[in-house]
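S.,

As promised, the guanosine-5'-triphosphate run. Input:
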Amino acid sequence: MLDPTPKARVLIGKPGLDGHDRGAKYVAQVLRDAGFEVIYTGIRRSPEQIVEAAIQEDVAGIGLSLLSGAHNVLFKRVIDLLKERGASDIVVFGGGTIPPKDIPTLTAMGVKAVFTPGTPAKRIVETLDTLLAQPA
Amino acid sequence: MPYHGDIPNLIAQTASRGPASVRAAARLMSIVTDHPERVATMLAGATRWPQPRLVLGITGAPGSGKSTLTDQMAASFRARHPDRLLGILAVDPSSPFTGGAVLGDRVRMMRHATDPKVFIRSLASRGHLGGLALGARGVVRIMGLLGCDVVIIETVGVGQSEVEIAQNADLTVVVLAPGQGDSVQMLKAGLMEAGDVFVVNKADRPDAATLQANLLNMLKMGWMARVDLYHEELTCHGPQMLVAGQSADGGKALSSIPDLPLDAAAPPPVFLTSATNAQGIEPLVDHVESRAARDADAWRARRDTQITREVRDAVLESARKRIAHLIGRNGTSQATLAPVLEGRISVDELTDQLIRRALSDIDTTHRIQPT
Ligand SMILES: Nc1nc2c(ncn2[C@@H]2O[C@H](COP(=O)(O)OP(=O)(O)OP(=O)(O)O)[C@@H](O)[C@H]2O)c(=O)[nH]1
Ligand SMILES: [Mg+2]
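Predicted complex:
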């Protein structure tokens, strides 16, 4: 019989003040269809809320969806908070309207992947499969 | 996950209630939900773990407002007991096709996310047979160890194991809402028997009063039918005829029938709430608290007897996993199953073979190492 074993748990959050979560919801759907368990937290979440939720949910990764342009600050805050909480093993990735010129800064900060609009769903899944592969 | 060997350490960290306790508890929860068969082992010798004072199940029709109501009730409990921890376990269905899930109940509870005294955990149903309820039980235990005074479990009232989880709680609240044609159907399908307390949510909607009236009628009929059945039981098997209100002991014998539910004295109460407007919440929580104060001893006794079932379920789950491992996943199981598919041996014979193989399997990598 069917005995689906889920892949990693991932939290998708949308920090920042703008209220569009179509991108975040889309990625949540894509990941669900690829077999991930996605904890969806909704819009306008503070980095504190996102990190606390990620720890309680014991997720392997946090995906931040950003449109507001404050991505450098928000990503940094999330990564710093994870460090503070001794949870730096949680992989942080992001998506949204992030200018390509900012990607190196984010990578240096510790963001493991950035998906800009137009990234094929398949590539998102493959990247996360690799990043969040659970040790057997 | 790499933290299997750490279980005793994680338990100690959780119990310490220090800064690392939240992360440790969260990891223990992953272990019991990924490996429900481990719950029994983990709990061996854990009978003295602190337990929540109240485990409240909230179930009901999809979209009826369970998460919003959970959020409001959580706020009320927090205001009543500012020093005490509160746990929330929110169960959502997995896709039967991909095994994936979007767990969205948290969206309605985010104001509690940074409250250090609230611990929220989402759980996907994962299509387990039995394993889900067991994993959920493990999570509740860990919340108890963490020091949670009240634990609220939200599950959608569709599917046997989801309803079972809510019913394993001390007290089960069934939430319905107007404008959902399936509410009454769900009651017929078994939710009516599952509820100790009923809530008609979305009372701000015009047809809420009608739903409440219909519900009260159904509950009263269901209750009368049950009372009649108990009486018949008594008449058939009891030493003497007993009619409610006429028995020599004033009806006390009725409550000594073993299976008589604690609250068979009246149909379950129905509360009207408007969760989005925070209305009707306090009377509901008042009621729940008064039940908790009154029935705490009976609940503790019932939890103790549930342990037997937990162990039984864990053994079954462990056996299921070991056989499933030998059959292989969908797609890879063809070869194992071929002899049956081709009619060469019976299902029973194959099962015998697999059990024998499971026993002799030296390479038991699928078996979780004991702590
Ligand atoms: N009008 C009205 N809407 C409500 C009320 N309570 C909840 N809702 C809305 O109903 C919708 C579903 O609410 P949830 O709390 O997510 O319901 P749920 O039962 O947890 O849903 P599932 O977990 O998906 O089954 C949301 O849009 C809520 O805002 C209420 O009292 N009145
Ligand atoms: Mg919900």
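Chain A has a mean pLDDT of 88. The domain at 9-129 of chain A is CATH 3.40.50.280 (Rossmann fold).

- D.
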